[in-house]
Amino acid sequence: MDLPRAYGVHITPTSKKTxxxxxxxxxxxxxxxxxxxxxxxxxxxxxxxxxxxxxxxELPAAFDPAERYDFLLVYSPxxxxxxxxxxxxxxxxxxxxxxxxxxxxxxxxxxxxAPAGQSAAIRDVQEDGGGGVGFASSSFSxxxxxxxxxxxxxxxxxMPAPDAWRRPPAATSLGRISISNExxxxxxxxxxxxxxxxxxxxxxxxxxxxxxxxxxxxYPSITKRLKDELGLALTxxxxxVRVLVVRST
Length: 249
What we know:
By secondary structure, the protein is an alpha+beta fold. Helix content is 18%, strand content 36%.
């Protein structure tokens, strides 16, 4: 890469095409190229080796969520690589004149539960080893919660009628989802990537498991697949969710 000489965070409009984003780094720099702000923040605030879900990031209304940039952190001799997330965060706050912070927000969510406990398809891990996830693209027709943004205050007039938001999402194509030696929280994270809405783990399954949902087309709904194949229930409700709130300063 043609790196700037100056230490610190450098943010510029990207020349990368839509499918050319890249996350690269060494002990001298960290680069997120071709990322919009939400995608970059999802990497910067990653937890347990998984990006922070973009569905839980709230941008200012005036900010263009589709605008893409190159985010580059060049370490100084006094910087430590393990501090890179904090350094990149501070650079973004200065460049865009933003403040970043976590808040609990009431949101419409999907809740994943296991009404009958652990099914045979959710297999206990037989031996120690590294975990992993597998994920393929999916296409859904979702029953929407109207057009409400994830803001903190919801008036009764903005709340949809119960029968308008309890319809299950209809799947036209469901890509393969699998976890190996991972938690149900990680499985919920994979579902959240597809559904673009928080998925809360209330299965009560606290171990590490091997789970696979093979790719399939033309299935009536993701909720039916989870119930029939894994014994899991996916329902819609409201919960207080930890949200990364981005504000203009």
